[in-house]
């Protein structure tokens, strides 16, 4: 290893002077790039932040931009210059999603509980407005009285014209009706044409003309109806009064509930503490099947990781042999499954395993319901996954093999080792040093290999006696169904389950990495 | 020194992360700024944003433009092609959603509980212009939640070369199908998708004819999620009938016939009967198969074979920015026969407007035949609880078709649905 400049200086006995760094083109380019990206993000984010009035976020944004500009324009803080980009990506793509998932796990965020309480109240009130029975469908013409927006309303049956203002409805005389039955002119008022009314659409929606039984509101720009809200929120009792009610706000569930225990459809997002975690641990449809699913999940991930490695390595070794001819052709052929989109291939394989119309049964001349029986379905998904995964292992093993000097195996042969012994004692250990981390990541990937299951068996076949869990369900497909199937989308619950799965994968990986480190100590 | 540098780094990254999420929220102003340029030039009337699936963007465009010109606003029709309901809900929540959404009526329950759509007030005259079934479908909790424009349901499509006459009953259909199979003219008795997870949508007419039911009814006649009937005696009998039609019985229902291959098989002449909807017709025509459409037959002496009816609907988004315009468009513009005809031409599904259907009748008898097949149909339940039915029902159906214990499968499905809906 080359000596550090500073160390050389010290060794020579001169005082440790900070060497002036040469300004290379790469340095200038990278500095410009970082600053340009920062400026671009700032420029992109400012208008929407100003539009929504998020001043705090804007302040933080400016501070960050200034900080980054300062960091890359000064000659100091050299380590930070290298750390910042990586840290930014780490925070944006790793830390933030993890933190967001973990915080979501403590809420009931999901269908029926997406928004705030205020939004729920608005939705409840608007949704309960019904047209007053027997009230006319007014033909509406928005007009201006001075600067104030008013409604000119025509009852289509009586042709009676009324003026609607926030104060109420008053009969109007002297208005001129057009052939469509709408007011075209009225004394003292400026009648708005369609485009002018459309320009004031927000005001038109907002204007409510009170009547004895309800409110007249615009329905679009050319009609207005008298509606009555069946439900209204009362802040005094924190409840919704009206039909079926009173509906009292229940902050634990995020619903308005009545005495009978029913709730209004529209709820809001609340903090539910550990309820999602508790549900994952205590719900009998989860805990009852958890061990079985976990067991199969481990088998699937292990067989996938080791199987693809075994096949990939065997092929790589065969092609690595010095007397092998036409290796380029074989390599191209072997990479093909990897080059094709896995998404489409999984669907093709699913159809090939069809009992009556599938290619597999036709070629083998058998009549097996591959994806219909637990054993064969498991075999089928593993076969498909091996087929999809081995080219990758073949590639990386080929690369790792190039790095092992041939002299080592030759020396082993001279010492009298059989080829198998040479492989077992020399090649494989050296390969594993390089490839074990990849095997671990392959395991972690296959542990959560949602596509391999969802696109082939969808978790099935399902035993008729317990339709919740299928024979090939992985934890991820199983919990996806729990969180997004029967009860609509339940993001909070899904997040809690993700935290559990994260814990399992992290544990397995940590143990595996520990063992690898020991192994490296032995062989290094 | 180093510590301070690290502190600066941490602060900077935190800041970036914060702005990263802050920036995503109000994406609309930036996203629409390019498109709204002509709007500001036209008038200060603003923009009306419509989200539609790819096949409907083109036909809507001219009407959107005409509406825009009339009202001095810019109308944007945007294409949404994946997870439409979920995308709409998420975008609405963030404030970057559309003013008008096009979707299936059975979304209504979920959209309402998420406060994403507003009721639409139609005049009595407008209501009368729609087919009764379509209007019933978009009515939820006594409120009309959108303007329907197309109605679709499944029917029995038969290869008239192999089966010239419409079968009078399911028994008749099975007998004819079996005879064709015995004669080697077809490979399958009936092309009805079952698959490894069942298919409640396609099997429902047969299930209903055998007496099966999903939910009880509330006093207002809506499906009642508190009474699940999958495990009731009548439904168990219906599952038994599916078992009789299944692999260990008549062999008409098979798990190897899936949603991917059922239309292909029919088009290739592998079966004489197909249970499917208007979306199958394009493939069937392309294959040059002579076909006719009739209602899915009922069992002899059984109840009517009622298919699910789905209604494509224009919804007014609660969190839209131009609500008055959206209401104007949905209530007074979409209810127009020309719009219905244009949408029909782009994607031939029977229009919900009776007048448009009459126009279509002359040039496309298929539309009317489909409509006929669905006239006793059941609007797909729009309650959010319907989501709990599909999978347990499908798995019970699959078990029955494979020749398993129908009663046990029905009971397990009932238990699973009750568990999901917390009915116990």
TrEMBL record, chain A:
Per UniProt, subcellular location reads as:
Cell membrane
- Name of this chain's protein: Maltose/maltodextrin transport system permease protein
Organism domain of life: Bacteria
Species this protein is from: Nonomuraea wenchangensis
Summarizing the function annotation, the protein's role is:
Part of the ABC transporter complex MalEFGK involved in maltose/maltodextrin import. Probably responsible for the translocation of the substrate across the membrane.
Q: Please tell me where this protein is predominantly located.
A: membrane
* UniProt xrefs under PANTHER family: MALTOSE/MALTODEXTRIN TRANSPORT SYSTEM PERMEASE PROTEIN MALF, MALTOSE_MALTODEXTRIN TRANSPORT SYSTEM PERMEASE PROTEIN MALF
Annotated Pfam families = BPD_transp_1, TM_PBP2_N
The residue ranges crossing the membrane are 28-46, 52-73, 82-100, 289-317, 329-349, 379-405, 426-445, 491-513
Query: How does the protein's chain sit in the membrane according to the entry?
Result: Multi-pass membrane protein
Family the UniProt entry places it in: Belongs to the binding-protein-dependent transport system permease family. MalFG subfamily.
GO cellular component entries:
maltose transport complex
Name the Gene Ontology biological process terms: maltodextrin transmembrane transport
Gene Ontology molecular-function annotations: ABC-type maltose transporter activity
Automatic annotation (TrEMBL), chain B:
For this UniProt entry, the molecular function terms from Gene Ontology, in alphabetical order, are: carbohydrate transmembrane transporter activity; maltose binding
The protein's UniProt keywords, in alphabetical order, are: Signal, Sugar transport, Transport
Q: Which residues form a coiled coil?
A: none
BP term (GO), one: maltodextrin transmembrane transport
CDD domains linked to this entry: PBP2_Maltose_binding_like (cd13586)
Cross-referenced InterPro entries = Maltose/Cyclodextrin-bd (IPR006060), SBP (IPR006059)
Tell me which Pfam families the record gives. Answer: SBP_bac_8
In the UniProt record, the signal sequence range is 1-23
Q: What's one GO-annotated cellular component?
A: ATP-binding cassette (ABC) transporter complex, substrate-binding subunit-containing
- Its domain of life reads Bacteria
Which family, according to UniProt? Belongs to the bacterial solute-binding protein 1 family.
Protein name as catalogued: Arabinogalactan oligomer / maltooligosaccharide transport system substrate-binding protein
């Amino acid at each position: 290893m080359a000596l550090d400049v500073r160390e050389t200086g010290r060794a020579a006995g001169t005082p440790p002077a900070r060497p002036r760094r040469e300004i290379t083109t790469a340095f200038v380019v990278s500095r410009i790039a970082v600053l340009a990206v920062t400026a671009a993000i700032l420029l992109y984010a400012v208008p929407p932040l100003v539009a929504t009035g998020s001043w705090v976020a804007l302040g933080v944004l400016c501070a960050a931009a200034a900080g980054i500009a300062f960091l890359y324009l000064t000659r100091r803080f050299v380590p930070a210059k290298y750390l910042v980009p990586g840290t930014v990506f780490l925070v944006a793509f790793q830390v933030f999603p993890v933190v967001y998932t973990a915080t979501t796990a403590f809420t009931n965020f999901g269908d029926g509980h997406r928004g705030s309480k205020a939004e729920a109240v608005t939705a409840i009130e608007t949704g309960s407005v019904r047209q007053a029975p027997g009230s006319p469908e007014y033909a509406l013409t928005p007009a201006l009285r001075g600067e104030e927006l008013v409604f000119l309303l025509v009852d289509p049956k009586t042709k009676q014209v009324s003026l609607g203002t926030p104060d109420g409805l008053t009969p109007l005389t002297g208005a001129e009706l057009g052939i469509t039955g709408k007011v075209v002119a009225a004394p003292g008022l400026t009648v708005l044409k369609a485009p002018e009314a459309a320009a004031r659409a927000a005001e038109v929606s907002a204007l409510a003309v009170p009547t004895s039984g309800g409110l007249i509101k615009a329905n679009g720009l050319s009609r207005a109806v008298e509606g009555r809200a069946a439900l209204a929120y009362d802040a005094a009792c924190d409840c919704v009064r009206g039909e079926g009610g009173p509906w009292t706000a229940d902050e634990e569930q995020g619903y308005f509930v009545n005495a009978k225990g029913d709730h209004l459809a529209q709820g809001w997002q609340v903090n539910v503490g550990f309820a999602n975690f508790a549900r994952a641990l205590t719900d009998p449809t989860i805990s009852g099947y958890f061990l079985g699913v976990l067991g199969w999940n481990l088998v699937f991930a292990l067989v996938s990781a080791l199987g693809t490695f075994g096949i990939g390595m065997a092929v790589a070794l065969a092609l690595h042999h010095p007397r092998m001819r036409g290796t380029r052709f074989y390599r191209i052929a072997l990479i093909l499954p990897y080059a094709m989109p896995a998404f489409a291939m999984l669907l093709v394989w699913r159809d090939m395993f069809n009992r009556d119309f599938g290619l597999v049964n036709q070629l083998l001349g058998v009549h097996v319901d591959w994806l219909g029986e637990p054993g064969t379905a498991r075999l089928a998904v593993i076969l498909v996954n091996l087929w999809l995964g081995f080219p990758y292992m073949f590639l990386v093993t080929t690369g790792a093999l190039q790095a092992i000097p041939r002299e080592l195996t030759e020396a082993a042969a001279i010492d009298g080792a059989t080829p198998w012994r040479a492989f077992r004692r020399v090649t494989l250990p050296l390969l594993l040093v390089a490839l074990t981390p990849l095997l671990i990541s392959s395991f972690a990937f296959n542990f959560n290999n949602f596509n391999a299951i969802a696109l082939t068996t969808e978790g099935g076949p399902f035993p008729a006696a317990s339709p919740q869990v299928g024979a090939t369900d992985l934890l991820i497909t199983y919990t996806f169904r729990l969180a997004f199937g029967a009860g609509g989308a339940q993001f909070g619950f899904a997040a809690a389950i993700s935290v559990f799965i994260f814990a399992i994968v992290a544990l397995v990986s940590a143990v595996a990495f520990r063992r690898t480190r020991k192994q490296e100590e032995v062989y290094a | 020194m180093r510590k301070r540098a690290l502190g600066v780094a941490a602060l900077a990254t935190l800041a970036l992360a914060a702005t990263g999420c802050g920036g995503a929220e109000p994406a609309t102003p930036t996203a629409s700024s390019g498109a709204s340029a002509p709007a500001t030039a036209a008038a200060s009337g603003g923009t009306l944003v419509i989200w539609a699936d790819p096949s409907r963007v083109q036909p809507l465009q001219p009407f959107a433009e005409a509406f825009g010109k009339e009202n001095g606003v810019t109308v944007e029709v945007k294409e949404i092609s994946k997870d439409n309901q979920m995308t709409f809900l998420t975008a609405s929540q963030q404030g970057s959603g559309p003013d008008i959404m096009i979707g299936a009526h059975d979304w209504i329950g979920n959209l309402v509980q998420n406060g994403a759509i507003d009721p639409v007030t139609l005049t009595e005259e407008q209501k009368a212009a729609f087919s009764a079934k379509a209007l019933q479908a978009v009515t939820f909790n006594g409120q009309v939640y959108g303007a329907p424009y197309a109605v679709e349901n499944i029917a029995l499509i038969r290869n008239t070369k192999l089966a010239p006459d419409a079968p009078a009953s399911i028994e008749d259909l099975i007998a004819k199908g079996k005879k064709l199979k015995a004669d080697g003219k077809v490979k399958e008795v009936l092309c009805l998708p079952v698959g490894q997870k069942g298919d409640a949508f396609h099997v429902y007419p047969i299930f209903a004819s055998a007496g099966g039911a999903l939910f009880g009814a509330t006093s207002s006649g809506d499906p009642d999620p508190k009474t699940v009937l999958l495990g009731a005696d009548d439904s168990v009998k219906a599952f038994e009938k599916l078992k009789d039609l299944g692999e260990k019985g008549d062999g008409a229902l098979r798990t190897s016939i899936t949603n991917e291959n059922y239309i292909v098989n029919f088009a290739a002449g592998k079966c004489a009967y197909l249970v499917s909807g208007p979306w199958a017709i394009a493939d069937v025509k392309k294959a040059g198969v002579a076909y006719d459409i009739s209602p899915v037959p009922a069992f002899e002496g059984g109840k009517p074979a009622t298919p699910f009816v789905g209604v494509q609907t224009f919804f007014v988004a609660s969190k839209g920015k131009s609500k008055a315009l959206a209401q104007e468009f949905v209530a007074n513009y979409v209810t127009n026969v020309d719009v219905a005809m244009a949408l029909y031409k782009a994607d031939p599904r029977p229009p919900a407007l009776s007048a448009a259907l009459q126009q279509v009748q002359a040039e496309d008898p298929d539309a009317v035949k489909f409509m006929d097949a669905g006239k006793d149909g059941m609007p797909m339940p729009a309650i959010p609880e319907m989501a709990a039915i599909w999978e347990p029902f499908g798995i019970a159906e699959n078990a029955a078709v494979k020749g398993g214990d129908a009663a046990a499968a029905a009971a397990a499905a009932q238990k699973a649905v009750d568990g999901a809906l917390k009915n116990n």
